[in-house]
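User: Is it possible to get a 3D structure for a protein together with its bound compound? The compound here is adenosine monophosphate. I've pasted both below.
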Amino acid sequence: AQVSERETRLASALRDLGVAEGDRVGTLCWNNQAHLEAYLAIPCMGAVLHTLNLRLSPQQLIFTINHAEDRVVIVDASLLPLLAGVFPHLTTVKHVIVVGEGDTSVFGDIATSYEQALAAAVPEFEWPELDELSAAAMCYTTGTTGDPKGVVYSHRSMYLHCFGVWGGLTLSDSDKLLPIVPMFHVNAWGIPYAGWMLGCTLIMPDRFLQPEPLAKLIEAEKPTFLGGVPTIFTGLLQYADTTPIDFSSVRIAVCGGSAVPRSLMESAEQKHGLRIIQAWGMTETSPIGAVALPPRGTPASEEMQWRVKTGRVAAGIELRICGDDGDVLPWDGTAIGEIEARGPWVTGSYYKVDAPERFHDGWLRTGDVGTIDSNGYVQISDRSKDVIKSGGEWISSVELENLLAGHPAVLEAAVIGVPDERWQERPLGCIVLKEGQTADAATLREYLTGKVAKWWLPERWAFLPELPKTSVGKQDKKLLRAMHADGAFTVVELAHSER
Ligand code: AMP
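Assistant: Yes, that's possible. Here is the predicted structure of the complex:
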């Protein structure tokens, strides 16, 4: 009730600032109540919620605000320095609304306090009857190539996506949801909307996403559901190794955004009693596309063989695999190609950008390469731009990375293709070791032996203090390849006798 009243006041305040139907309102906020109020007020008044990714480079942040032509930006006080830094380059922003206290001098008289604006606004708003196909929200992709591309979600697509979230992630009104995935990335997977519609409890971590405060929040608030990317769970479980966390309230921890290693799922379950379920999706698919829940009736001892897959296609989504020549391949678990998607919450275009190469006869080309089996379980082996083709055959970097992550000394692993005179390309294993642990190239190669085809085994290895990440915490393999090309790190090449 409190959020509803404040949401109504926010809509009134925005209208008083001149925000009209169709106008874009940016939010530069963490996962908190004010952001939820903006999630509700902005689309319902007919304006468009544009969640700004606070981890983009300043140039990309400027690009997204100007490209979307945001009229107002709502900003958390903790993020004021970020907005202040890019502000001189913003061409369309007429008002800045600040949640909390902070230095707003750079904005002059266009800055308003969120609380004061809400207090001054009337708690009444005549919510318009909107066309269900009109824009409700937008999110820019975080791709590593070119400018970010805007994906617009309609009221219809977001409403239907909520059904996908409820069913796919098995939510009910007795759930207490803790979205760790940021609200600036694909609407936090739709969890705030789906949870709000169902009447779930929403637990907001704000900006305190480090293992220690998250552990305290989990123990104090007892969520039944967690949603986050693998990096978050890796950090949380590492912390739990030394300071046990009581996860007993958590029924399901949904993990996605990049491949989830089997070792992470196994150690979460065996050591900490945390059941991780993998899911797949992308900004363009709102994002729910596939969820790796095991088929009904699977005995507990056999669950893992399903859960390590990328996911089973969600109800409402259609997937197909296409070969190099565009031919549609069978769902037989073997035929490998680019995965294409369509459905009521899959985008058909990008905002103000023509990108015909991303669509194929009305299907979205996901850029993910993999297989689908006859039960509809997807297994992604690579991003199309990250595939490794050695002697004309594909090597799955995702599979090698997942296996390497299971070695007790390995904290993180990335496998990239590097030029090779004989095979055109060969895999290079890039490894970050756990603190105080050792493992050399020969040991890691030996560890993989027998688990994959012999010709997949990397002979080149590099040990790095950390791996480069994108703005949403995924491995930035493009940067890693560029670092390798620039000789930014040392590569160990095993001699033939050591292979
Ligand atoms: P984004 O639009 O930034 O959310 O990125 C979407 C991309 O993340 C997908 O196209 C996949 O490449 C990757 N991704 C998401 N979930 C998974 C998963 N479970 N396994 C492997 N890759 C994933």
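The pocket of adenosine monophosphate is lined by residues 141-142, 186, 256-260, 278, 280, 282-283, 287, 310, 366-368, 380, 383, 472 (CB under 6 Å). The mean pLDDT is 95.
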